[in-house]
Amino acid sequence: MNTEAIRVEGARKRYGDKDALDGLDLTVGRGTVHGLLGPNGAGKTTTVRILATLLRHDEGLVRVAGHDVRTGAREVRRRIGLLGQHAALDEELGGRQNLEMFGRLHHLGARRAGTRADELLERFGLADTGRKPVRQYSGGMRRRLDLAASLITDPEVLFLDEPTTGLDPRGRAEVWESVRSLVGGGTTVLLTTQYLEEADRLADRISVVDRGRVVADGTADELKARVGADRIDVVVRDAHRLDEAAGLLPAARAEVTVDTDRRLLSAPVADRMESLAGTVRALGAAGIEAEDIALRRPTLDEVFLRLTDREAKEAAA
Ligand SMILES: Nc1ncnc2c1ncn2[C@@H]1O[C@H](COP(=O)(O)OP(=O)(O)OP(=O)(O)O)[C@@H](O)[C@H]1O
Ligand SMILES: [Mg+2]
Fold first, then answer.
1. Class of domain 4-224
2. Which CATH number among 3.40.50.1970, 3.30.420.270, 3.30.70.100, 1.10.760.10 corresponds to the domain 229-297?
3. Phi-psi bin for 41: left (phi > 0), alpha (psi -120 to 50), beta?
4. pLDDT in tens, 90-117
5. What is the C-alpha separation between 267 and 94, in angstroms, rounded?
6. Ligand 1 centre and the CA of 46: distance in Å?
7. Nearest alpha carbon, ligand 1 atom 31
8. What is the sign of the dihedral through the CA atoms of 88, 40, 19 and 50?
9. How does pLDDT run across 186-224, given as a tens digit for each residue?
10. Domain ranges of the chain
11. Predicted structure pTM score
12. CB 99 within 8 A of CB 144
Protein backbone atom coordinates (compact mmCIF):
# COMPACT_ATOMS: atom_id res chain seq x y z
CA MET A 1 0.00 0.00 0.00
CA ASN A 2 1.21 3.44 -0.94
CA THR A 3 2.11 5.42 2.15
CA GLU A 4 2.02 8.74 0.33
CA ALA A 5 -1.18 10.70 -0.03
CA ILE A 6 0.38 13.57 -1.95
CA ARG A 7 3.55 13.82 -4.00
CA VAL A 8 4.61 16.94 -5.87
CA GLU A 9 7.93 17.19 -7.71
CA GLY A 10 9.14 20.34 -9.38
CA ALA A 11 5.69 21.82 -9.98
CA ARG A 12 5.62 25.03 -12.00
CA LYS A 13 2.76 27.35 -12.77
CA ARG A 14 3.10 30.57 -14.67
CA TYR A 15 0.71 33.50 -14.93
CA GLY A 16 1.98 35.70 -17.75
CA ASP A 17 5.62 36.26 -16.93
CA LYS A 18 5.17 35.52 -13.25
CA ASP A 19 5.97 32.18 -11.62
CA ALA A 20 3.23 31.43 -9.11
CA LEU A 21 4.91 28.05 -8.51
CA ASP A 22 8.60 27.85 -9.18
CA GLY A 23 9.58 24.21 -8.74
CA LEU A 24 7.55 23.28 -5.69
CA ASP A 25 8.21 19.92 -3.99
CA LEU A 26 5.92 18.36 -1.42
CA THR A 27 5.38 14.92 0.08
CA VAL A 28 2.54 14.19 2.48
CA GLY A 29 2.19 10.85 4.27
CA ARG A 30 -1.20 9.14 4.54
CA GLY A 31 -3.22 9.98 7.62
CA THR A 32 -1.08 12.98 8.53
CA VAL A 33 -1.82 16.69 8.77
CA HIS A 34 0.55 18.74 6.67
CA GLY A 35 0.78 22.50 7.00
CA LEU A 36 1.60 24.73 4.03
CA LEU A 37 2.74 27.91 5.64
CA GLY A 38 3.56 31.08 3.78
CA PRO A 39 2.95 34.80 3.37
CA ASN A 40 0.43 36.37 0.95
CA GLY A 41 1.12 35.40 -2.62
CA ALA A 42 3.46 32.53 -1.69
CA GLY A 43 1.58 30.07 -3.88
CA LYS A 44 -0.52 28.21 -1.30
CA THR A 45 -3.89 28.51 -3.01
CA THR A 46 -2.31 27.80 -6.40
CA THR A 47 -0.88 24.56 -4.97
CA VAL A 48 -4.20 23.51 -3.47
CA ARG A 49 -6.09 24.25 -6.69
CA ILE A 50 -3.63 22.17 -8.71
CA LEU A 51 -3.85 19.28 -6.24
CA ALA A 52 -7.65 19.48 -6.32
CA THR A 53 -7.64 19.37 -10.17
CA LEU A 54 -9.18 22.85 -10.44
CA LEU A 55 -6.10 24.29 -12.12
CA ARG A 56 -3.53 22.73 -14.49
CA HIS A 57 0.16 23.05 -13.74
CA ASP A 58 2.69 23.72 -16.52
CA GLU A 59 5.46 21.36 -15.46
CA GLY A 60 6.27 18.77 -12.84
CA LEU A 61 4.75 15.68 -11.30
CA VAL A 62 1.62 15.92 -9.14
CA ARG A 63 0.02 12.85 -7.60
CA VAL A 64 -2.88 12.72 -5.14
CA ALA A 65 -4.22 9.56 -3.49
CA GLY A 66 -2.14 7.45 -5.85
CA HIS A 67 -3.28 9.13 -9.09
CA ASP A 68 -1.71 11.67 -11.40
CA VAL A 69 -3.83 14.84 -11.47
CA ARG A 70 -3.33 15.13 -15.24
CA THR A 71 -4.15 11.60 -16.34
CA GLY A 72 -6.32 10.54 -13.43
CA ALA A 73 -8.29 13.68 -12.57
CA ARG A 74 -11.55 11.77 -12.19
CA GLU A 75 -9.96 9.29 -9.82
CA VAL A 76 -8.44 12.11 -7.81
CA ARG A 77 -11.74 14.02 -7.58
CA ARG A 78 -13.50 10.99 -6.23
CA ARG A 79 -11.05 10.81 -3.31
CA ILE A 80 -10.70 14.40 -2.19
CA GLY A 81 -12.60 17.08 -0.31
CA LEU A 82 -11.93 20.80 -0.49
CA LEU A 83 -12.63 23.60 1.90
CA GLY A 84 -11.98 26.75 -0.11
CA GLN A 85 -11.63 30.30 1.12
CA HIS A 86 -15.35 30.95 0.48
CA ALA A 87 -17.82 28.14 0.83
CA ALA A 88 -21.10 27.79 -1.01
CA LEU A 89 -23.58 27.56 1.84
CA ASP A 90 -27.20 28.53 1.33
CA GLU A 91 -27.92 31.24 3.90
CA GLU A 92 -31.66 30.62 4.12
CA LEU A 93 -31.43 26.88 4.62
CA GLY A 94 -30.60 25.23 7.92
CA GLY A 95 -27.29 23.49 8.51
CA ARG A 96 -28.87 20.08 8.07
CA GLN A 97 -30.59 21.03 4.82
CA ASN A 98 -27.31 22.39 3.48
CA LEU A 99 -25.53 19.15 4.22
CA GLU A 100 -28.35 17.08 2.72
CA MET A 101 -28.16 19.20 -0.41
CA PHE A 102 -24.41 18.63 -0.66
CA GLY A 103 -25.00 14.92 -0.22
CA ARG A 104 -27.56 14.88 -3.03
CA LEU A 105 -25.18 16.86 -5.25
CA HIS A 106 -22.63 14.13 -4.63
CA HIS A 107 -25.15 11.48 -5.69
CA LEU A 108 -25.95 10.09 -2.27
CA GLY A 109 -29.52 8.81 -2.11
CA ALA A 110 -32.04 10.81 -0.04
CA ARG A 111 -31.85 8.53 2.94
CA ARG A 112 -28.06 8.25 2.89
CA ALA A 113 -27.72 12.04 2.52
CA GLY A 114 -29.91 12.50 5.59
CA THR A 115 -28.03 10.08 7.82
CA ARG A 116 -24.69 11.46 6.64
CA ALA A 117 -25.87 15.00 7.46
CA ASP A 118 -26.88 13.90 10.96
CA GLU A 119 -23.56 12.10 11.53
CA LEU A 120 -21.57 15.16 10.53
CA LEU A 121 -23.68 17.62 12.54
CA GLU A 122 -23.18 15.42 15.57
CA ARG A 123 -19.46 15.12 14.95
CA PHE A 124 -18.92 18.87 14.67
CA GLY A 125 -21.12 19.86 17.60
CA LEU A 126 -23.85 21.33 15.39
CA ALA A 127 -26.64 18.87 16.11
CA ASP A 128 -28.61 21.40 18.20
CA THR A 129 -28.45 24.10 15.57
CA GLY A 130 -29.04 21.95 12.50
CA ARG A 131 -32.44 23.53 11.80
CA LYS A 132 -31.40 27.14 12.27
CA PRO A 133 -30.83 29.09 9.02
CA VAL A 134 -27.15 29.46 8.28
CA ARG A 135 -27.36 33.28 8.26
CA GLN A 136 -27.84 33.06 12.04
CA TYR A 137 -24.63 31.04 12.52
CA SER A 138 -21.50 32.50 14.08
CA GLY A 139 -18.28 32.53 12.04
CA GLY A 140 -16.96 29.45 13.83
CA MET A 141 -20.20 27.52 13.30
CA ARG A 142 -20.19 28.36 9.60
CA ARG A 143 -16.66 27.19 9.19
CA ARG A 144 -17.48 23.94 10.96
CA LEU A 145 -20.45 23.49 8.66
CA ASP A 146 -18.15 24.14 5.67
CA LEU A 147 -15.87 21.49 7.05
CA ALA A 148 -18.77 19.07 7.45
CA ALA A 149 -19.82 19.77 3.83
CA SER A 150 -16.31 19.02 2.55
CA LEU A 151 -16.50 15.64 4.31
CA ILE A 152 -19.82 14.51 2.83
CA THR A 153 -18.12 11.96 0.59
CA ASP A 154 -15.70 10.80 3.30
CA PRO A 155 -12.60 11.85 1.33
CA GLU A 156 -9.18 10.21 1.67
CA VAL A 157 -7.48 13.56 1.27
CA LEU A 158 -8.91 16.84 2.49
CA PHE A 159 -7.63 20.27 1.46
CA LEU A 160 -8.27 23.16 3.81
CA ASP A 161 -7.34 26.57 2.41
CA GLU A 162 -6.95 28.94 5.34
CA PRO A 163 -9.74 27.32 7.38
CA THR A 164 -9.65 29.81 10.24
CA THR A 165 -8.90 33.12 8.54
CA GLY A 166 -11.26 35.80 9.87
CA LEU A 167 -12.38 33.82 12.91
CA ASP A 168 -12.05 35.06 16.46
CA PRO A 169 -9.93 33.00 18.88
CA ARG A 170 -12.92 30.96 20.02
CA GLY A 171 -14.06 30.16 16.48
CA ARG A 172 -10.52 29.22 15.62
CA ALA A 173 -10.25 26.87 18.58
CA GLU A 174 -13.54 25.21 17.53
CA VAL A 175 -12.27 24.59 14.01
CA TRP A 176 -8.96 23.26 15.32
CA GLU A 177 -10.84 20.81 17.48
CA SER A 178 -12.83 19.64 14.46
CA VAL A 179 -9.73 19.21 12.31
CA ARG A 180 -8.05 17.20 15.03
CA SER A 181 -11.02 14.88 15.23
CA LEU A 182 -10.58 13.98 11.56
CA VAL A 183 -7.11 12.70 11.84
CA GLY A 184 -7.90 9.68 13.97
CA GLY A 185 -10.20 8.53 11.18
CA GLY A 186 -7.25 8.24 8.81
CA THR A 187 -8.03 11.28 6.65
CA THR A 188 -4.99 13.05 5.22
CA VAL A 189 -5.24 16.80 5.63
CA LEU A 190 -3.32 19.48 3.72
CA LEU A 191 -3.88 22.77 5.43
CA THR A 192 -2.74 26.19 4.27
CA THR A 193 -2.35 28.91 6.81
CA GLN A 194 -0.70 32.20 7.56
CA TYR A 195 -1.01 31.51 11.26
CA LEU A 196 2.16 30.01 12.60
CA GLU A 197 0.38 28.97 15.74
CA GLU A 198 -2.13 27.02 13.67
CA ALA A 199 0.58 25.07 11.87
CA ASP A 200 2.35 24.47 15.16
CA ARG A 201 -0.82 23.12 16.83
CA LEU A 202 -2.30 21.05 14.04
CA ALA A 203 0.35 19.93 11.60
CA ASP A 204 2.55 16.86 11.94
CA ARG A 205 4.85 18.38 9.35
CA ILE A 206 5.15 21.85 7.90
CA SER A 207 6.40 23.16 4.57
CA VAL A 208 7.32 26.82 4.59
CA VAL A 209 6.48 28.25 1.16
CA ASP A 210 7.79 31.49 -0.22
CA ARG A 211 7.51 32.74 -3.79
CA GLY A 212 6.40 29.45 -5.23
CA ARG A 213 9.00 27.27 -3.59
CA VAL A 214 9.40 25.31 -0.36
CA VAL A 215 12.14 27.07 1.58
CA ALA A 216 12.09 24.68 4.54
CA ASP A 217 10.20 21.68 5.81
CA GLY A 218 10.03 19.42 8.80
CA THR A 219 8.21 19.11 12.08
CA ALA A 220 7.67 22.32 14.02
CA ASP A 221 10.45 21.23 16.36
CA GLU A 222 12.83 20.47 13.51
CA LEU A 223 12.19 23.85 11.97
CA LYS A 224 12.79 25.56 15.27
CA ALA A 225 16.00 23.60 15.77
CA ARG A 226 17.15 24.38 12.23
CA VAL A 227 17.02 28.07 12.79
CA GLY A 228 19.20 27.18 15.65
CA ALA A 229 19.90 28.76 18.88
CA ASP A 230 17.82 28.57 21.97
CA ARG A 231 17.05 31.99 23.35
CA ILE A 232 17.40 33.70 26.66
CA ASP A 233 14.60 36.08 27.70
CA VAL A 234 15.17 38.63 30.44
CA VAL A 235 12.50 40.90 31.93
CA VAL A 236 14.25 43.92 33.47
CA ARG A 237 12.52 45.62 36.39
CA ASP A 238 13.66 49.16 35.63
CA ALA A 239 12.79 50.23 32.05
CA HIS A 240 15.54 52.87 32.13
CA ARG A 241 18.22 50.21 32.38
CA LEU A 242 16.97 48.14 29.42
CA ASP A 243 19.68 49.29 27.01
CA GLU A 244 22.42 48.84 29.53
CA ALA A 245 21.19 45.32 30.28
CA ALA A 246 21.01 44.53 26.55
CA GLY A 247 24.75 45.20 26.36
CA LEU A 248 25.41 42.63 29.08
CA LEU A 249 23.72 39.64 27.44
CA PRO A 250 26.02 36.93 26.03
CA ALA A 251 25.28 37.80 22.37
CA ALA A 252 26.27 40.48 19.89
CA ARG A 253 24.28 43.65 20.62
CA ALA A 254 22.73 43.52 17.12
CA GLU A 255 21.21 40.10 17.93
CA VAL A 256 19.44 41.27 21.06
CA THR A 257 15.80 42.24 20.52
CA VAL A 258 14.33 44.84 22.88
CA ASP A 259 10.61 45.00 23.69
CA THR A 260 10.29 48.26 25.60
CA ASP A 261 6.63 47.84 26.57
CA ARG A 262 7.22 44.49 28.24
CA ARG A 263 10.73 45.46 29.42
CA LEU A 264 11.83 42.26 27.70
CA LEU A 265 15.20 41.46 26.19
CA SER A 266 15.72 38.37 24.06
CA ALA A 267 18.93 36.98 22.57
CA PRO A 268 20.13 33.73 20.96
CA VAL A 269 22.46 31.66 23.12
CA ALA A 270 25.04 29.07 22.17
CA ASP A 271 25.45 27.35 25.52
CA ARG A 272 22.33 27.24 27.63
CA MET A 273 23.58 26.86 31.19
CA GLU A 274 26.70 28.93 30.76
CA SER A 275 24.70 31.76 29.19
CA LEU A 276 22.12 31.64 31.95
CA ALA A 277 24.74 31.72 34.71
CA GLY A 278 26.76 34.40 32.88
CA THR A 279 23.70 36.62 32.45
CA VAL A 280 22.75 36.34 36.12
CA ARG A 281 26.32 37.22 37.13
CA ALA A 282 26.64 40.17 34.73
CA LEU A 283 23.30 41.69 35.70
CA GLY A 284 24.08 41.16 39.39
CA ALA A 285 27.48 42.84 39.07
CA ALA A 286 25.88 45.86 37.34
CA GLY A 287 23.15 46.05 39.99
CA ILE A 288 20.38 45.52 37.43
CA GLU A 289 17.37 43.67 38.80
CA ALA A 290 15.67 41.04 36.64
CA GLU A 291 12.02 40.10 37.21
CA ASP A 292 12.38 36.98 35.15
CA ILE A 293 15.07 35.10 33.26
CA ALA A 294 14.22 32.10 31.09
CA LEU A 295 15.70 29.89 28.42
CA ARG A 296 13.41 28.84 25.59
CA ARG A 297 13.29 27.41 22.06
CA PRO A 298 12.65 29.93 19.28
CA THR A 299 8.98 30.35 18.38
CA LEU A 300 7.73 29.35 14.97
CA ASP A 301 7.21 33.06 14.31
CA GLU A 302 10.91 33.64 14.67
CA VAL A 303 11.68 30.65 12.45
CA PHE A 304 9.30 31.87 9.80
CA LEU A 305 10.69 35.39 9.77
CA ARG A 306 14.23 34.12 9.58
CA LEU A 307 13.50 31.73 6.71
CA THR A 308 11.47 34.10 4.56
CA ASP A 309 13.75 37.04 5.33
CA ARG A 310 16.83 35.07 4.35
CA GLU A 311 15.21 34.24 1.02
CA ALA A 312 14.47 37.91 0.43
CA LYS A 313 18.08 38.83 1.16
CA GLU A 314 19.45 36.18 -1.20
CA ALA A 315 17.20 37.38 -4.00
CA ALA A 316 18.33 40.96 -3.45
CA ALA A 317 22.01 39.95 -3.56
N1 LIG B 1 -5.45 33.93 -11.79
C2 LIG B 1 -4.28 34.53 -11.59
N3 LIG B 1 -3.74 35.35 -12.52
C4 LIG B 1 -2.55 35.96 -12.32
N5 LIG B 1 -1.80 35.79 -11.21
C6 LIG B 1 -2.26 34.98 -10.25
C7 LIG B 1 -3.52 34.32 -10.37
N8 LIG B 1 -3.73 33.58 -9.26
C9 LIG B 1 -2.65 33.80 -8.47
N10 LIG B 1 -1.77 34.63 -9.05
C11 LIG B 1 -0.47 35.05 -8.50
O12 LIG B 1 0.26 33.90 -8.14
C13 LIG B 1 0.93 34.09 -6.90
C14 LIG B 1 0.51 33.02 -5.90
O15 LIG B 1 -0.84 33.24 -5.55
P16 LIG B 1 -1.64 32.33 -4.49
O17 LIG B 1 -3.05 32.76 -4.51
O18 LIG B 1 -1.34 30.91 -4.76
O19 LIG B 1 -0.94 32.77 -3.12
P20 LIG B 1 -1.35 32.39 -1.63
O21 LIG B 1 -0.13 31.83 -0.99
O22 LIG B 1 -2.58 31.56 -1.62
O23 LIG B 1 -1.63 33.82 -0.99
P24 LIG B 1 -2.72 34.25 0.13
O25 LIG B 1 -2.06 33.98 1.45
O26 LIG B 1 -2.84 35.73 -0.11
O27 LIG B 1 -3.99 33.52 -0.09
C28 LIG B 1 0.62 35.50 -6.46
O29 LIG B 1 1.66 36.34 -6.83
C30 LIG B 1 -0.64 35.83 -7.22
O31 LIG B 1 -0.71 37.21 -7.46
MG1 LIG C 1 -4.50 31.81 -0.78
1. alpha beta
2. 3.30.70.100
3. left
4. 889 999 999 999 899 888 999 999 999 9
5. 53
6. 6
7. 41
8. negative
9. 899 999 998 888 898 899 999 999 999 999 999 988 887
10. 4-224, 229-297
11. 0.80
12. no
